[in-house]
Amino acid sequence: MSKTLGITWQNARKSVKNVRKSEGLTALVFFAPSFLGILVFFLIPFADTVRRSFFDVRGVNFIGLDSYVSVFNNAAFRLAAVNTLRFVAICIPLLLLLSLAVALLLRCVRPFGSLLKTSFLLPMAIPVASIAFLWQLMFSEFMASDAAFWVLVFTYVWKNTGYNMILWLAGLDSISDTLYEAAYVDGASKLQSFRYITLPCLLPTIGIVSILSLLNSFKVFREAYLVAGPYPHDSMYLLQHLFNNWFVRLDISRLSAAATLMTAVLLVIILIMRRFLDEKDEF
Questions:
Q1: What secondary structure does DSSP assign to 78-102, as a single string?
Q2: Count of CB atoms within 10 A of residue 74's CB?
Q3: Most buried of 72, 122, 208, 261, CB within 10 angstroms?
Q4: Cα-flanking dihedrals φ and ψ of residue 55, to 5°?
Q5: What is the maximal distance between C-alpha atoms in the chain?
Q6: What is the pLDDT of residues 191-214, one digit of tens each?
Q7: Distance of alpha carbon 272 from alpha carbon 256, whole angstroms
C-alpha cells in the first residue's frame, strides 16, 4: 500500500513539474517578442549611449571622463538641472495631493462622479498643438518673465490630474468597506479612518503614482517647446531643452554623458522611493 502511494506521489510530482515546465515555455514564447522589442529599441541604444559618453563625437577615439567634466562645467546644464529639480520638487507633491483630493471628492459625489471624471480626463484627449496654441493666447505676456515657470507647472498639473485620479480611484476601490465599517463601529472619525486605513492601504498605489508622475514630468517638454521654442525664459529652461539643443548641434558626446547622468539619477530616485514605501508597507 505504501509502495503504491509512493509511486502515485512521484507520478503526481512529475506531472506538476511537466505542467510548470510547459507553462514556463508558453510564457517565454509570449514574452519573447516584447523582450526582443525592449532589447532592440531601448537596452541596446542605451548601452550605446553610455559607450558614446566615453568617446568623441564620432564614437571612435576614447576620451574618458572628458564629456562628463564638460557637462558639469557647462552653465546651461547647471541652469537646466536646477530648473528641472525645482520643477519636479514642486509638481510631484502638488499633483499627488490634488489628484488624491479629486479622487476622494468623486467618491463622495457618486451620482455625478462619471460626469466629473470625464471632465478631468479631457486634457489627456486634447492634442499637444492645440494646448500650445491656447497657452500662447492666454499666457503670452507671462512667457518672457519668471511667471513662465508657473505656467509650466500649471500645464503639467492640469494635464496629469485626471490620469492620476484614475490610479487613485483604483487604489481606493481595492480597500474593503468592512474596514471602514469596523472603524465606524469603534467610533473612529473620518479623519482617523483616512489616516489609519486609507493611507496605509494606499501605499502600493502611492509608489506607482509617484513613479509615473516623475516619469511624466519629463514629457512636459513638448508643450514648453511649442509655446516658447528651444530657448525659453531662463526660469523654464529644462534639461529637455538642453538635450534638444545639443542634439541639433550634434554634440553627441556631451549629450550622451548628460543622458547617462540623468538616467542614473532617475534610477536612484526610483529605488529610494521603492525602498521607502516597502519599509512603510512592512511596518
A1: HHHHHHHHHHHHHHHHHHHHHHHHH
A2: 16
A3: 261
A4: -125, 175
A5: 91
A6: 888 888 888 888 888 888 988 888
A7: 24
d(CA 177, CA 48): 51
> From the CB of residue 38, how many other CB atoms can be counted at a distance below 10 Å?
11
DSSP notation for 152-214: HHHHHHHHHHHHHHHHHHHHHHTS-HHHHHHHHHTT--HHHHIIIIIHHHTHHHHHHHHHHHH
Please give the Cα distance from 232 to 158 (Å, whole number): 21
For residue 193, what is its C-alpha cell? 479612518
Element (H, E) at 116: helix 113-125
Q: How crowded is residue 209: how many other Cβ atoms within 10 Å of its Cβ? A: 24
Q: Is 79 exposed, middle or buried (0-12, 13-18, 19+ CB in 10 A)?
A: middle
Summarised one tens digit per residue, pLDDT across range 155-190 is 889 888 988 998 898 888 888 888 888 888 878 888
Q: Which three cell numbers stand for residue 207?
A: 509608489
- Residue pLDDT, tens place only, 250-276: 888 888 999 899 889 888 888 888 777
